[in-house]
Amino acid sequence: xxxxxxxxxxxxxxxxxxxxxxxxxxxxxxxxxxxxxxxxxxxxxxxxxxxxxxxxxxxxxxxxxxxxxxxxxxxxxxxxxxxxxxxxxxxxxxxxxxxxxxxxxxxxxxxxxxxxxxxxxxxxxxxxxxxxxxxxxxxxxxxxxxxxxxxxxxxxxxxxxxxxxxxxxxxxxxxxxxxxxxxxxxxxxxxxxxxx
Length: 196
Known about the structure:
Layout: H1 2-13, H2 18-43, H3 49-56, H4 68-79, H5 84-103, H6 106-138, H7 143-195
Helix pairs in contact: 2-6, 2-7, 4-5, 5-7, 6-7
């Protein structure tokens, strides 16, 4: 209970700019969680090249999963024409439809992470403005009034950075993961095209 009370006091000391910083953080982490679960889901049960060849030759029955390569192979088996060039274009088309889903929301994570320190800077400015207002009204004799403005400035800066640093790290991590999956998909398709 003390932890919650301390967090609420800390939040209130940060002033009104803390609300958008917290909302930014919640939105960013919700999108990060969605991407992590998506990447985990599409990696589970994916087909390798040997299994794809078995499905294409009809020796193994295709099954629908959430995995990208499996989805492409299942769709290809259902709609292939028998013409090698047209089938290769079909594979390219299916892969092209899957690629944007891999990178969905990755730019949003980077933007939300980049916005957090700017919101912290806004809090710094408003906190310092409050400090100067106290100085203008009471002079430098009201240390408590000046401290609250300085506290607001520092807390919002700190919170903005605390949101941004892990957000930028996760943005880079998820972008690398999407690139690895896309590169693996490209290699898989190039090999598959030589077989069909």
